[in-house]
Write a structure and sequence with these properties.
It is a single chain. With about 325 residues, the chain is an alpha/beta fold. It is built from eleven helices and twelve strands. The strands form two sheets. Strands 1, 2, 3, 4, 5, 8, 9, 10, 11 and 12 form a ten-stranded mixed beta sheet that branches. The protein has a two-stranded antiparallel sheet with strand order 6-7. The longest helix has 18 residues. The structure holds ligand PBG. The site of ligand PBG has 11 residues, from α6.
Length: about 325
């Protein structure tokens, strides 16, 4: 390619890019990016109880479910063509160390066993590995005193994080996805899984996760907002791109098999840079706030929901994501059928 805007192509009128746009069949032949329900991962929220199906106000069409309704929900999504799921648990109780995350009868552990029993290997089950849903203070690990305040104790959290992952692997998780943005988390988890015999379970690391306002609706859904302060000492500054490359390099060196960038839409440049630089499987998380904005505008009749959703997800794929975590997964699977 030369440096001219048109590359090596001759100029107008020899070149007429519109030639490839007149015939819809030609447009399909030259389409560079394909969106498929095979690439989508649906996040689901599960809590204790029976027959629970409580819609999340800011996330229309998404529910807090109990294990029984979760099994039905996954079956219905699978019938539409969604095959991969990531589970978030809302525990029965919260304490300072998030001990309910490690219980054999914990909500995610129960869900994994029930889903596997009902749906076998037709579905792929991922688990979000973090403590913010399980701690009474809502931070992503154990706290310690730092200066005048409290902060997540990185190194003290690593062993319990590894224990949470092993517990989920034991209950049937296919892929482990740590989201706490702690230093050394991938290495600690890899060692934990390996020494428990789970060397074949891949790690999808939330390697570049930003301290973002776009997680608002999720924190209602998972009942996990921090009770004081914010997540700025562990999640990344939205202003930084080079730092994401460092996070990804470290996680790969520690054994991450796949890399997540989160949120997706305001960080498409990061997705592209990670893909170009590391050439590993990349996931983009189309987060709750991105979903809520589309739903809200569509409900007001301000945008065409289907068109905008497909455009957004295609842009995440085009940026370099191989897979997308999205609350739109059911709708998209329906539209793409
Ligand atoms: C847990 C976690 C969060 C999300 C995924 N895993 C919340 C947070 O970091 O505050 C957000 C997902 C979304 O907004 O859709 N750490």
């Amino acid at each position: 390619m030369s440096d001219s805007p048109a590359g090596d192509a001759p100029g107008f009128p020899t070149s007429r890019p519109r030639r490839l746009r007149y015939n819809p069949l030609v447009r399909e032949l030259v389409r560079e990016t394909e969106l498929s329900s095979r690439d989508l991962i649906l996040p689901l929220f599960v809590r204790h109880g029976r027959g629970v199906r409580q819609e999340i106000g800011s996330m229309p069409g998404n529910f807090q479910l109990s294990v029984d309704t979760l099994v039905d929900e996954v079956g219905a999504a699978r019938d539409l063509g969604v095959r991969s799921f990531i589970l978030f648990g809302i525990p029965a109780f919260k304490d300072a160390t998030g001990s309910s995350a490690l219980e054999d009868e914990g909500i995610v552990q129960q869900s994994l066993r029930a889903l596997r029993k009902a749906h076998g290997t037709d579905i792929l089950l991922m688990t979000d590995e973090c403590f913010c849903e399980y701690t009474d203070h809502g931070h992503c690990g154990i706290l310690h005193r730092r200066g005048d305040g409290l902060d997540v104790d990185n190194d003290a959290t690593l062993p319990i994080l590894a224990a949470q992952c092993v517990s989920h692997a034991r209950a049937g998780a296919d892929v482990i996805a740590p989201s706490g943005m702690l230093d050394g988390m991938v290495g600690a988890i890899r060692r934990g899984l390996d020494s428990a015999g789970f060397h074949d379970i891949p790690i999808l690391s939330y390697a570049a996760k930003y301290a973002s306002g776009f997680y608002g609706p999720f924190r209602d859904a998972a009942e996990s907002p921090p009770q004081f302060g914010d997540r700025n000492t562990y999640q990344m500054d939205p202003a930084n791109g080079d730092e994401a490359m460092k996070e990804v390099a470290l996680d790969l060196a520690e054994g991450a098999d796949m890399i997540m960038v989160k949120p997706a839409l305001s960080y498409l440049d990061i997705i592209r840079r990670v893909k170009d630089r590391f050439r590993v499987p990349v996931a983009g998380y189309n987060v709750s706030g991105e979903f809520a904005m589309v739903k809200a505008a569509a409900r007001n009749g301000w945008i065409d929901e289907r068109r905008v959703t497909l455009e957004i997800l295609t842009s995440i794929r085009r940026a370099g994501a191989d897979m997308i975590l999205t609350y739109h997964a059911r709708d998209v699977a329906k539209w793409l059928r």
